[in-house]
């Protein structure tokens, strides 16, 4: 919690050395100070600047997104239609989302706030936060604060209002739920609500980090450095893998051209290769069927002969049959019938077992 520096309701756009401000310390003491006195009295302590509600506006808006990077842009569109001034000339401060899904917004002319901050900085004052006095009033329910010349109103439905004390009696009967603040030192009471008020130091008007936050800067620097190194490592690994992928792609294309030199243009290597494989498979199937056709009649005529295994060598165009017969005469008869079909037949090793004799016949190739 910081000491507060209050600007009066009638504070002009530019502060002078004689401008009267009110300083309220955390320990309870408070007094009016001219701007020229502030530096010597307050020293280098960090202050919360409290602005008069008369110079600002408050509202509740519904935003279509909760993503931080889009909130500022969505906020400008949400409040633009309700404002009489150009939204580009206004400073918008966004509060935390409420239970009903709406966000509280505080609005003030940017040039006005920038002028005050510049004057305070020239006077040597350190501002760590910026609040509206009506925001510091609200705790729960509805509250009001009455001082010598003005009345502040705040409620949990988003109402933030400042009016002259002379105008208060006309509204008092219409707002019976408001509980007046009767503290002897009302400005001291406002210090306690700093944590729940909306800090106007946002966006381009964000203030310097406090010293406690600067203590984390070395840790943040180490973390950022580590992330940069990790990013460089990932980038290098990605480039290396891309290089290897390019090398494999070139090798695959070279092999493809060696296998299929008739293809002059390669558009999709994988798809074209699959087409060649499909065509080769269909061609081999046709060749196998053509090789088997002459074998059908001799095998059907050879009684007692069974084909146990068939091997086809597409590259050599040859068939190898492992057959079994009751005797060697049956095997010889089958060989003769195959030769009668115009086939080149050679009989490989033959042997006898309990079930008869078996042999390997090579058709159209070398035994």
TrEMBL record:
Q: CDD domains, alphabetically? A: ASKHA_T2SSL_N
Instruction: Identify the InterPro entries for this entry.
Output: ATPase_NBD (IPR043129), GspL_cyto_dom (IPR024230), GspL_pp_dom (IPR025691), T2SS_protein-GspL (IPR007812)
What sequence ranges are listed for the domain GspL cytoplasmic actin-ATPase-like? 35-179
Q: What is its main location?
A: membrane
- Coiled-coil residue spans: none
Q: Where in the cell is it found?
A: Cell inner membrane
Q: Which GO terms describe its cellular component?
A: Gram-negative-bacterium-type cell wall; plasma membrane; type II protein secretion system complex
Residues forming the GspL periplasmic domain are 214-364
Q: Which UniProt keywords apply?
A: Cell inner membrane, Cell membrane, Membrane, Protein transport, Transmembrane, Transmembrane helix, Transport
Question: So which domain of life are we looking at?
Answer: Bacteria
| An example Gene Ontology biological process | protein secretion by the type II secretion system
Annotated membrane topology: Single-pass membrane protein
Q: Which NCBIfam families match?
A: typeII_sec_gspL
Q: What does this protein do?
A: Inner membrane component of the type II secretion system required for the energy-dependent secretion of extracellular factors such as proteases and toxins from the periplasm.
Record family assignment? Belongs to the GSP L family.
Protein name listed in UniProt: Type II secretion system protein L
